[in-house]
């Protein structure tokens, strides 16, 4: 999931800090999420997807999950 | 997400207990999940999707998330 988030973030030329803030997620946690080191909650991933302008379903599809 | 899980479970004629066991999730928690009272982790929802024979992306799509 982390790679999918990073890919969409890069496509939007968005910084990790900006995505963390837009998702109301701790900036350190966002780094861990993108590195696949953090098991996020569904609600947190939905917030990230929303900040990336996509759905949870689309993000999960990107990640082949 | 809870409604989508319940709908797929019913379609498979699977009991809530059987789904909880197949997903390695506490049976009480599974009831709360289906009632939308529990914010699951991505890994837990992936286990439920797998037990239902679908992907996280498909389940999220069912739930319009």
How would you characterize the overall build of this protein?
Two copies of one chain form a homodimer. With 65 residues, chain A is an all-alpha fold. Chain A has one domain (2-62): 434 Repressor (Amino-terminal Domain). Chain A has five helices and no strands. Chain A has helices at 2-11, 16-23, 27-34, 42-51, 56-62. In chain A, helix 2 (16-23) packs across helix 3 (27-34) and helix 2 packs across helix 4 (42-51). The longest helix of chain A is centred in the N-terminal third of the chain and has 10 residues, at 2-11. Chain A is globular. The mean pLDDT of chain A is 95. Chain A binds chain B through residues 1, 39-43, 45-46, 55-58, 60-61, 65, and chain B through 1, 39-43, 45-46, 55-58, 60-61, 65.
Write the layout of secondary structure elements.
The structure is a homodimer of 65-residue chains.
Chain A: H1 2-11, H2 16-23, H3 27-34, H4 42-51, H5 56-62
Helix pairs in contact in A: 2-3, 2-4
Feature tags:
homodimer; 65 residues; mainly alpha; 434 Repressor (Amino-terminal Domain); 5 helices
Number of helices of chain A: 5
Oligomer status: homodimer
Shape field of chain A: globular
CATH uppermost class of chain A:
Mainly Alpha
The CATH homology group name of chain A: lambda repressor-like DNA-binding domains
Helix content of chain A: 55-70%
Low-confidence stretches of chain A: none
CA-atom Rg of chain A in angstroms: 10 Å
Largest interface: A-B, 15 and 15 residues
Our measurement of the CA-to-CA distance between the termini of chain A, rounded to an integer number of angstroms, reads 8 Å
Q: Biggest sheet of chain A: strands, sense, closure?
A: none
Q: What's the count of strands of chain A?
A: 0
CATH architecture of chain A: Orthogonal Bundle
Mean pLDDT figure of chain A = 95
What is the domain tally of chain A? 1
How are helices and strands ordered from N to C of chain A? HHHHH
What portion of the residues of chain A fall into strands of 2 or more residues? under 5%
* CATH topology (level 3) name of chain A: 434 Repressor (Amino-terminal Domain)
- The SS-based structural class of chain A is mainly alpha
Protein name (chains A, B): Helix-turn-helix transcriptional regulator
Organism (chains A, B): Brevundimonas nasdae
């Amino acid at each position: 999931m982390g790679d999918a988030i990073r890919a969409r973030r890069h496509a939007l030329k968005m910084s990790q800090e900006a995505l963390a803030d837009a998702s109301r997620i701790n900036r350190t946690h966002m780094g861990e999420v993108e590195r696949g080191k953090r098991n996020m909650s569904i609600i947190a991933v939905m917030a990230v997807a929303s900040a990336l302008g996509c759905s949870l379903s689309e993000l999960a599809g990107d990640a082949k999950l």
